[in-house]
Amino acid sequence: xxxxxxxxxxxxxxxxxxxxxxxxxxxxxxxAALFTLLGYDGIGAVMKIFVEPLFNPYRWQDLxxxxxxxxxxxxxxxxxxxANVWNIGAEGQYVVGGLAGTGVALLTYEMSGYWILPAMIxxxxxxxxxxxxVPAVLKTRFSVNEILSSLMLNYVALQLLYYLxxxxxxxxxxxxxxxxxxFTDWQTLPKVVPGTLIHLGVPIAGVLALVIWFLVxxxxxxxxxxxxxxxxxxxRYGGFQESRTVWTAMLIGGGLAGLAGVLExxxxxxxxxxxxxxxxxxxxxxxxxxxxxxxxxILMAALVLxxxxxxxxxxxxxxRLPSAAVxxxxxxxxxxxxxxDVLVRYRVVNRTTARSxxxxxxxxxxxxxxAA
Amino acid sequence: MNAxxxxxxxxxxxxxxxxxxxxxxxxxxxxxxxxxxxxxEGMMLIGAVTAFAVxxxxxxxxxxxxxxxxxxxxxxxxxAALTLGLASNQVATxxxxxxxxxxxxxxxxxxxxxxxxxxxGPIFPDALADDPYWxxxxxxxxxxxxxxxxxxxxxxxxxxxxxxxxxxxxxxSDDAAHSIGxxxxxxxxxxxxxxxxxxxxxxxxxxxxxxxxxxxxxxxGRGWIAIALxxxxxxxxxxxxxxxxxxxxxxxxxxxxxxxxxxALAPEFMSSLPYLATIAVLVMISxxxxxxxxxxxxxxxxxxxxxA
Lengths: 372, 308
Known about the structure:
The structure holds two protein chains of two kinds.
Chain A: E1 3-7, H1 13-37, H2 42-55, H3 57-82, H4 90-107, H5 116-142, H6 146-166, H7 201-218, H8 220-230, H9 232-237, H10 242-269, H11 280-290, H12 295-318, H13 324-340, H14 342-345, E2 346-350, H15 351-355
Antiparallel strand pairs in A: 1-2
Helix pairs in contact in A: 1-2, 1-13, 2-12, 3-7, 3-8, 3-10, 3-11, 3-12, 4-5, 4-6, 4-10, 4-11, 5-6, 5-10, 7-8, 7-12, 11-12, 11-13, 12-13
Chain B: H1 3-32, H2 40-58, H3 61-85, H4 90-109, H5 132-138, H6 142-160, H7 162-172, H8 174-179, H9 184-210, H10 222-232, H11 237-260, H12 267-286, H13 291-295
């Protein structure tokens, strides 16, 4: 029996939903095996990371707090990925968003008023947008590949963060630690559930999913973006402008990454430190794919990936699993998702039976001419 | 400036250029076959940690360098299986490979943080490399010469060998290559494995030559610069070598400025220089010219399935 792949006429709806689940389950099984082989407690690692936080109500708030920025960034990225605009610079846009918000916080440090926090948030969104505008300009004006330019800017954003926190923005009374002052109450994100960690960012992420869903499914702009992703030639033929698609994707992606950044700075961090970037911008890429680039899928995928952060922390202390293990689990999930996705477009058939039904696929002639 | 200082600066340029050149040569061959592998950074990290671990365990950095090619090629095998076997999206799969390489190298390297190993130093006897000018020719790590020889080899392979022509045909028109009987997927798989081995060797340069140590994310984004270099070189090996040495000079400038403690510019600005320079050359090479699109292999990034 030889198995081979045969293209489906239509993508399988069942597999669209099933393949993320297959990916997660396979990651758990293979992950446990891999970590056992590497000499760690593999089953313990999987239990600590993926199962225990689910059954510990005290950890649920942690999950929501970690899932919120992941979902926000992934929602923005999904718009671009649908249109084949590959913004890999969310990590940098997140950092710059956080820095822009911090800038406003430092300027308004002595002031009070309800307007301060919205001003910080606005600055964060604009900061992320401005940073994403760089690859957008380079792409539309100079046709520079956005993957490379946006990724390079991640490294530049890190250096900017180091420069500001070590230099001009360093807290003068901070015992020479490279970090800013703690934000005031006016500059801190309020908690939506008193007595928990759950801040305003969590409901914002939920609302954003609804907004993005509406944008993508119900508007002409959303339709254009999808056409560019599926059939760029047809989109151009239909008179849709590619540069507008790039700009829309980049600005929404950058704006949401910037928003996630400023909410993290004003929320869980409460100041700006060199430890601010935690890889959310990269993990959000996995969230976007695992969530099928669909707003509601992304919310669920963000919770799954939040598990790896929350559970990863407790696995570090409980079974001394290195923090890098989290990255391995995350990457495996994306690998298995991409592998399982083949079943959306293809079905597995038994070659021995399938062969008799079709003409031999062997090339008819073997031309030995040099292909120049 | 006296000769000794100048020579030492030029030696640093060669050392900074070599890993970029090695990784970019591999990626160039991969892209010529029509595949875009964005996992270079991840494969370099896997190569770097392997080289270090093997060198520490066996005491032989040469063995470490060879092992780095094996493990990084194995990692590229995952990419090949997914993109060729299962026709997965190449951009997403390459990113997954980079995330995977970053994680697994940090995990495997954890026990090796904070120790050093023997450097993969110059191969020629000291007598030859004593004089500063001769040192410029004979004073390098073997990988520096290997990178230059590989540039010639890749140029010859693509331009003058029959297999190279087939590889280019596969990258320019996979359907046509398939219909005249060339094994498209096999050619691409071999190219990807070659790219993996070269990225691994490039990674080993960081953990065996630049600093004989291991640290998480040791390659610091150089794998991405290597990918950009391929675009900069318009997929031509000769220009690739020139580009790698140009970037070697930029990185050396960064190191020298930091060492000299230039106060006019923040060290953080100097650290961003290679990344900003990458963007600048991408703009220069891409701006307003159609040539860059014509130079790119026509099937770059497109999955291939034989229409049976």
